[in-house]
Amino acid sequence: MTVYLLAGGGTGGHVNPLLALAEAIRTSEPKSEVITLGTAEGLESRLVPLRGFELQIIEKLPFPRRLDGYAFAFPIKLRRAVNQIVKLIEERKIEVVVGFGGYASAPAYLAAKRAKVPYVIHEANALPGLANRLGARSAAAVGVAFASTKLPKAVTTGMPLRLEIEEAILKANQLSARKELGLNPDVATLLVTGGSLGAKRINETIAAAAGTLDAAGIQVLHITGGNSDLGEIQSPALVRMKYCDRMDLAIAAADLAVARAGASTVCELGAFGLPSVFVPYPVGNGEQRFNAAGLVAAGGAILINDADFDSDSVRDLVIPLISNTKELKRMRLAARKASISDGTIRLLQLVQSVLPANQRSDK
User: Fold this and answer.
1) Cα Rg of the chain, angstroms
2) Helices 263-272 + 163-171 axis angle, to 10
3) Full-prediction pTM beyond 0.85?
4) What angle do CA 271, 152, 71 make, to 5 degrees?
């Protein structure tokens, strides 16, 4: 058996691939042990225990961005977190650490290096985050979701997909998925999601265009995210909810998606073959635009700037596209061809490759 420590969290983009790998280990190596590492503030604090995995908590430690009191306290806090993880590695006899970025990863990489156990990095975004850029220098192996990601030792594994998404790719039933979500099984369906926190521009635009979509004979499954003030609705033309714990059903039910271009979203929609209109988050280092670039270039998705996504674009772009079954079929095939659907097993094999030969299969 092997004892794994999986570190990451914060948003769904870090938590979902972590959980996908954890579930793959649990399925393929029932005698192995999986411990996860995260913070009390991130989505992992809810989702990891829900999936039945142990979660060890460390303090949330963002890298200082300016010279203030936190910046002076940061080295002490980081040292304390690293010491905590080293102790965990030694007491639980952890044999490999896998980091997915996020606040828990940087201390985990430092602790693994000090404890002399190998660590593997998975980078979900096309533009890697600071923790993974720094950690890649000493990593035993580095897996990336997108071939365009520039990191030392990078191997393109694709994105680890949650088990339910992998199963939906193989045997999804659109009609039954719509029924289970309270949608009309016979009506064209638009999936709208801005990620776990939501997207203000997307939410406001879809809310404003609800009547236009209804008049065009299109029903909407709108997942607003945790930061939205929009109320939940269950009507013949619109199902609106803050969270959807069954994204496999949501994706299976849809003919077209309007979404942010977070790494997990891009990879899940692409692997499923769901034609998409991506509206990248306009703040930060622009990684969402790069996440979507390959799928857009392949013809499986369309990209529109956040500032340009309004009721007119719903009328002039989204409605004609979802009504064009021939174009949707072409996009569906292009998306599948350009995407990786077995990223979970690819990452697991990469992690197993850094273990001693006598630990590479469950005993």
Assistant:
1) 21
2) 20
3) yes
4) 100
Helix H or strand E segment including 142? strand 141-144
Q: Burial, 226: exposed, middle or buried (Cβ in 10 Å; 0-12, 13-18, 19+)?
A: exposed
pLDDT at 2 over 80: yes
H helices of the chain, where? 12-28, 44-50, 69-92, 105-115, 130-135, 163-171, 174-180, 200-208, 210-215, 247-253, 263-272, 287-298, 311-313, 319-322, 325-338, 343-353
For the chain, give the longest Cα–Cα distance: 63
Specify the CATH architecture of the domain 3-161+342-359.
Answer: 3-Layer(aba) Sandwich (3.40)
Query: Which residues, listed in sequence order, are joined to residue 120 by a DSSP beta bridge?
Result: 98, 141
Phi, psi of 241, rounded to the nearest 5 degrees: -145, 155
Assess contact for 123 and 147: CB atoms under 8 A. Answer: no
Encoded tokens for 36 = 């996860």
Residue 135: in which H helix or E strand, if any? Answer: helix 130-135
Same fold, 3-161+342-359 and 164-338: yes
From the candidate CATH numbers 3.40.50.970, 3.30.450.20, 3.40.50.2000, 1.10.10.10, the one assigned to the domain spanning 164-338: 3.40.50.2000
- Contact between residue 282 and residue 312 where contact means Cβ atoms under 8 Å apart: no
Q: Name the residue with tokens 């303090």.
A: 59
pLDDT at 358: 56
Q: Is the pLDDT of residue 33 over 80?
A: yes
> Which residue type, as a one-letter code, is found at position 29?
E
The DSSP bridge pattern shows strands 96-99 and 54-57 to be unpaired
For 239, phi then psi, to 5°, come to -110, 115
Q: What is the pLDDT of residues 166-203, one digit of tens each?
A: 988 988 899 999 999 999 999 999 999 987 777 899 99
pLDDT at position 359, please?
Answer: 65
Flag whether pLDDT at 307 surpasses 60.
yes
Type of residue numbered 110: L
Q: Where are the domains of the chain?
A: 3-161+342-359, 164-338
pLDDT of residue 144: 98
Per-residue pLDDT at 363 exceeds 60: no
- 203 in Cβ contact with 223 (< 8 Å): no
pLDDT of residue 11: 75
The residue type at 152: P
Q: Where are the alpha helices (DSSP H) in 209-262?
A: 210-215, 247-253
